[in-house]
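Duplicate of #3305? Posting structure anyway:
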């Protein structure tokens, strides 16, 4: 499977702490283990999920161009924290024939169980964002 990987760190601390490199390494190991063809790493460093994220937009553009079969992230909340945006983007990806895989959440939207888990986890991601804003 041809996969694109996306990493994100919303705070300067996450960027400086090596969190992005950890995400990249975890994804590379996962792709190698699964035998996926690892195409590219896209990274939005220091940008929150509420920001205009160029790498996120590029990932969706590549999906629309049918250049990838899946997007792989370490955790769902790296892709987004708004339930509406998560559902819209993942549904759009699926309609294009792409899948979404979140390693840490054991989430693969190619299965009914994975799609159910996706909806549950997206609600928790948004809830966590809202709690942090208080």
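Output from current build:
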């Amino acid at each position: 499977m041809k996969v694109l990987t996306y990493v994100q760190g919303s705070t300067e601390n996450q960027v400086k702490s090596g969190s992005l490199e950890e995400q990249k390494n975890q994804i590379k190991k996962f792709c190698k283990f699964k035998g996926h063809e690892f195409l590219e790493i896209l990274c939005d460093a220091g940008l929150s999920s509420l920001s205009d994220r160029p790498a996120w937009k590029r990932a969706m553009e590549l999906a629309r161009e049918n250049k990838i079969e899946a997007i792989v992230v370490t955790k769902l909340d790296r892709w987004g924290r708004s339930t509406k945006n998560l559902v819209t983007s993942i549904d759009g990806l699926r309609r294009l024939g792409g899948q979404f895989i979140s390693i840490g959440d054991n989430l693969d939207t190619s299965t009914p169980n994975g799609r159910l888990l996706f909806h549950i986890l997206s609600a928790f991601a948004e809830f966590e964002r809202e709690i942090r804003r208080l």
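Confirmed duplicate; merging threads. The two ends are 41 Å apart (CA to CA). The chain has a mean pLDDT of 88.
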